[in-house]
Amino acid sequence: MGLDWRGLDSTGWPKLRGAAARVTAASDSLFPALSFAPPAGYRRPMTTSPATPATHRDELRLAESRLQDCLERAAGDSPKTWASHPSGLPGWSRGHVVAHLLGNLDGLLNLVEWAQTGVPTPMYASPEAREAAIQERSGWTLTRLAAAMTTRAEEFARACSALTEPLPSRQLRLGSGAAAQAWELPMLRVREIEIHQVDLADGYVATDWSAAFTVRTLGQVQPAMAGRGGLPVARLRATDTGRVWECAPQGPDLWGREADLLAWLVGRPYVGLSLVAPQLGTPRPGLRVVDPGAAVPPAPRWV
After folding, report:
1. The domain spanning residue 143 has which CATH number?
2. pTM score of the predicted model
3. S-S: 105 plus which of 55, 116, 152, 158, CB 3.0-4.6 Å?
4. How far apart are CA 217 and CA 51, in angstroms?
5. Taking 80 as the threshold, does the pLDDT of residue 12 lie above it?
6. Nearest Cα to 183, choosing from 45, 67, 55, 23?
7. For the chain, how many structural domains are there in total?
């Protein structure tokens, strides 16, 4: 186990041991020295509060240590069975998902190099090379995958520690083609872990996402998808917070908890979503459901 809940460290965080402790030590040395806050004047839609080095540190180290804890537990129980078990992604085992998460660190390290040198460095050499690496690594033992993940996470923390102003504002290009700035790299890693840990189908679900992660990611993904068009609903309406996201000129509203709305948007399992006749204002009891038995249409492919 990576987390020892029997005590807290001096900052109020759970004490860590094993691989998770090593990742945490690396991130602690990284984030106090980082100026990874957004550049002056930067605004993200629908975020709860401005990002700070402290929130980056806390969120990233918790995500990495939770992932390592999951892998170490599985490696100690039934590693072959666990890794070969189907994941939530069609055609992929859990081993494929872990290999993908490991490859994501490789790609992020390439982007750190781009930010450091100013020389465009692709996140991945090619889609084919990326897929080949996933297929190869999916056959590794879970112990080997977990150890490689720890090593690369530590390298990522150390590499990011060299990113000081004005490098964090340098614009980069993700594997999907989307633009990103160097200061966003730790949060991109958090997003990768949070979404793909759901794909591991090992008990971690969308409603385990933190409120801060959920609203931030909705604010990143929903405008991009709405801008591309094709969303089958007019609005996303959060029943737990009252927030509303405009998606399309017409169609029903999709009504549910924020985490489930995000899960629907990124093609992950959700519960309790309802199609509702278009309404003004915030979600409230008594809204007319279009068809209680109607299946919620899937969102277009996210990436």
Report:
1. 1.20.120.450
2. 0.81
3. 152
4. 13
5. no
6. 55
7. 2
**DSSP 8-state code for residue 294:** P
Q: Is the Cβ–Cβ distance between 47 and 221 less than 8 Å?
A: no
Q: Is the dihedral of CA 73, 78, 79, 85 positive or negative?
A: negative
pLDDT, one tens digit per residue, over 23-50 is: 444 444 443 334 344 434 333 434 333 4
Angle of helix 142-160 versus helix 18-30 axis, rounded to 10: 10
Say which DSSP state 16 is in: E
Structural domain containing residue 218: 212-303
Whether residue 132 sits in one domain with residue 44: yes
Q: Which of 146, 169, 204 is the last residue of a domain?
A: 204
Q: How does pLDDT run across 229-269, given as a tens digit for each residue? A: 999 999 999 999 999 999 999 999 999 999 999 999 999 99
pLDDT-derived band at 91 (thresholds 50, 70, 90) equals very high
Residue ending a domain, among 146, 175, 204, is: 204
Name the DSSP letter for residue 256.
E
